[in-house]
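Re: the request from the purification team.
They wanted to know what the chain is likely to look like in 3D before they choose a buffer screen. I agreed to run a prediction and write the result into the notebook, where they can find it.
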Amino acid sequence: MKTIATQVLLFLRNKPDRRNFTLLLKFLLVLIILVSVFTLIFHLLMLREGRSFSVITGFYWTLTVMSTLGFGDITFDSDTGRFFSMVVLLSGMLFLLILFPFTFINFFYSPWMKAQEQSKVPWELPENTKGHVILTRCGPVTEALIKKLKRFNYSYVVLVPTLAEGLEFSQMGIRVMLGPLEDPDTYKKARVSQAALVATTESDVVNTNVAFTVRGIEKKVPIIATCNSEASQDILKLAGANHVLQLGEVMGVYLSRRASVGGAKAHPIGRFGDLLIAEALVNGSALVGKMLKETRLRQDIGVNVVGVWERGNYFAAQPETPISENTVLVLAGSVDQIKIYNETYGVKHTNKYPILIIGGGRVGRATGSALAARNIDYRIVEKESQRIKNYEKTILGDAAELEVLKEAGIDETPCVMITTHDDDINVYLTIYARQLRPDVQIITRCTLERNLNTMHRAGADFVMSYASIGANMMLNLLQRSDILMVAEGLDLIKLKVPKELVGKSIKETEIRKETGCTIIGIKKDNQMMINPEPQTEIPDHSEIILIGTVSSENKFFEIYGSKSD
């Protein structure tokens, strides 16, 4: 009933539709009068012939003749009656077979179907809508964000400028609302004053317009805007954005963290207060050839091995997990514990060849800058001269040409980083680099989440998704959950302890066995307990820090709910 009411309101709100509907009613009124007149004349002519029929029979005869059915059970004997029958017949052909279908379809059926479509793409959200996230575009970043919002049971709406676009997204199960981004009424109808967040991921110019428009009608709602140009950052903040995300630069930092330069050493990739997450290459160290239980890293050093990477695949750490030269350990511990690990098992790298970066766009240049901050040399291959900012570090040419790659050092480099924005090109270059150097580390950027598995099959050791990084940052800025993406598909989450776990020891909860997630920290009263023992009881009013894959997280939320009380 609510849907029908919505469709009726949409139908009647449109002025041309109201006018057409009025014309249809007038046509039906004329038709009813015509049928009534014909019925009256029928009775008069029949009385002249000495026959009498009921009123119902008169309507019956008129409708059967006008509709051309003509059963023939009631006929006139006089020529006047027969002439009248022809008039009724021709009138019926004109009104019922021609004018009525045309009028009904154009003045009612088509507008009604249009109203049904528009009901799927509303112009306004219900008045009681609150705590929702308003998105201005359905692109790779917002698609990834929507998945995470659904996982945490946050409502959202995507603003769309056209009905066709809205219907397309609606059929995909995405909640949309129709309205121009530059119109303040759009945000009023989207209940921006009751929203938890406005996230705009359009161009810098459009994002500035959105931030300025929203801030003009609502002073408190947080606004997050993505930014492509560094020069736009200050403008966006002046327009009213609370947070400006330069995802290209962030992606560059994420990619640079995973670059191998030889040797064995743990380097930090994320931090939650005093809890440090690090990835440790083991090539050349004393750990190679052992099982995890034989290393005694937790007992001797205090660090916790929460998982391992093997050629781009993440596995939860088990006591019997073997360590090979290609293994990358994911460690959790304090700064001092990670430092002791490096002093004990660190092996200085001997490879002095630069890392090869393919793609000199924003992400490629940001990756180079992040590597330079770590005192790691690099070379960028870029085929468009206008993108080159540092000619000393850049090779001009097409990375698909072997001569260009050899000039850039493909034969000696310890790591190839592929950073173009085109996933198809990245797959192609990943396959090419893997064929040229089966032993080299390949790190690939991915724009769309659906292409992650393809990148791994192509030979990438690590794949970082532009969309996932942006979605995680926006979700964190909601200030309702803390998520740190350790690597693509592997997250750290800080959340309030569910009631079902309060008072139980970590061993009793069997979280790792049931979900695949690992508790690597417990925080209470601003005190962080890093790598708690299995016998540690989980106190009330505390927060737990979990590490796990996306599927493990989903399993945890299925069992314990998306939000804690």
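For the purification team: DSSP finds 21 helices and 22 strands in the chain.
Please add any questions underneath this entry.
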